[in-house]
Write a structure and sequence with these properties.
The chain is an alpha/beta fold. The chain has a single domain, classed as YqgF/RNase H-like domain (Nucleotidyltransferase, domain 5, 2-Layer Sandwich). The protein is 44% helix and 20% strand. The chain is built from 5 helices and 5 strands. A 5-stranded mixed sheet has the order 3-2-1-4-5. Helix 3 packs across helix 4. The N and C termini lie far apart (48 Å).
């Protein structure tokens, strides 16, 4: 199994790819919060996954910043787990050096997914998200 941990932010996301044993397959890297950034990450996952292993993606629930990337992963058919930041923060307490930065956050998220000790945050269906955004835009511009 290949596990991708993504620390979601407003403009740029940090991501790391590990295997089911916890060995890092890539160092932490930055992608833009854009279509091109999502495409970069997907291509990196596909280039590493030469054996067609299952890919599991973990992201923290950080408002609407994760939605474009989440939607793209849904289109690609990846298994996505959106976790509450409180869960990854409590997992961080297991480590002796509890430093916090975006690279470490991505790794912690991947580790939470690897150990399967989380509950997922449910998001609305793609059509409902689009309808909600359309309603907000109409309310804002009218």
């Amino acid at each position: 199994m290949i596990i991708v941990g993504i620390d979601v932010a407003k403009n740029k996301h940090n991501a790391i790819i590990i295997d089911s044993k916890g060995d890092t397959l890539t160092k932490s890297f930055i992608i833009n919060n854009s279509h091109k950034g999502a495409e970069t990450l997907i291509n990196k996952i596909k280039s590493i996954n030469t054996n067609n292993l299952p890919v599991v993606i973990g992201m923290e629930a950080t408002g609407y910043y994760l939605l474009p990337l989440y939607s793209r992963f849904v289109q690609e058919g990846f298994e996505i787990n959106v976790i509450n930041p409180i869960q990854s923060d409590s997992f961080r307490n297991m480590y002796i050096r509890q430093s916090k930065n975006n690279s470490i956050n991505a790794f912690i998220i991947a580790e939470v997914i690897r150990f399967s000790r989380f509950t997922t945050t449910s998001l609305a269906e793609e059509d409902m998200l689009a309808f909600r955004n359309l309603s907000r835009f109409r309310l804002y511009y009218c």
